[in-house]
Amino acid sequence: MPRRYFEDFPEGLSVELGSVAFTSEAIVEFARAHDPQPMHTDPVAAQSSIYGGLIASGWHTAALVMRLLVENYLAAESSLGSAGLDELRWPHPVRPGDTLRVRAMVVESRRSVSKPDRGIVKAVVEATNTDGATVMRATAINFMLVRPDPGA
Amino acid sequence: MPRRYFEDFPEGLSVELGSVAFTSEAIVEFARAHDPQPMHTDPVAAQSSIYGGLIASGWHTAALVMRLLVENYLAAESSLGSAGLDELRWPHPVRPGDTLRVRAMVVESRRSVSKPDRGIVKAVVEATNTDGATVMRATAINFMLVRPDPGA
Fold it and tell me: pTM to 2 decimals?
């Protein structure tokens, strides 16, 4: 893959990031470590919850989406980290057996005024299940280096 | 601990959730699985980054904060899950050796009109390092069951 910088993330860019699958084992393992609520860790208790069965922690979904962002969206040569996210939402539960497709769409891309070596890129990131339901949506805010001056 | 429901999370409630510590081993392990960027996984490469050394993935911080929310804020008998978060921010990096104190403050608490068995509780969650710098801030939105009618 060619080296990519701030200039390669213009407003309107849409990137398919691939897909991720959830097993009940992985759902329980992640939740035991990070979000040990019965709806995520105990299939029997989850059955009598409002969800009617085990669902993934939203943080598990976020972690798998982040991995796809690193592999297929961000570039190691220019990624300077993130300020955070606006409106992280989990509108629909993720269940064992679900496979999600993930997409990022750049909605804002501007050069920093105070630090001209970088730009700020905002992207709407969406994960969708095979029924077409959006299970996670967020606006990610990333700092990226501008392309180095070849004469410098 | 007594059973807690929506009514136990009034606006203005402030809860100290405890503290979490970060080692470089844990930072690298989490990031290799979920956020494999050099600033999080490679101490040598991180040295020459804008951060001057290894920093934790923001998702790692979020996961440890979530665990404290489950252990010391949410109640298994009433937690119905989360719609998401507003303005998740990582204003300051987390470094190996850092210990964070975490606090949740309820900023909005209202009974659901469409589903009267539950309420919506918004809380600002903040993690602060020992220098007093805020390293994570977010507004979490949680659904919680109201206290059951003892006559029902």
Answer: 0.95
Q: What is the radius of gyration, based on Cα positions, of chain B?
A: 18
| Separation of alpha carbons A46 and B95, rounded Å | 36
- The model's pLDDT over B89-148, given as tens digits with 9 standing for 90+, comes to 999 999 999 999 999 999 999 999 999 999 999 999 999 999 999 999 999 999 999 999
- ipTM of this complex: 0.94
Chain A residues lying within 8 Å of B89, measured CB to CB: 83-84
A145 torsion bin: left (phi>0), alpha (psi -120 to 50), beta (else): beta
Query: Are B27 and B96 within 8 A, CB to CB?
Result: yes
Nearest CA in chain B to A61: B34
Q: What is the 3-state secondary structure (H, E, C) of B81-125?
A: EEEEEEEEECCCCCCCCCEEEEEEEEEEEEECCCCCCEEEEEEEE
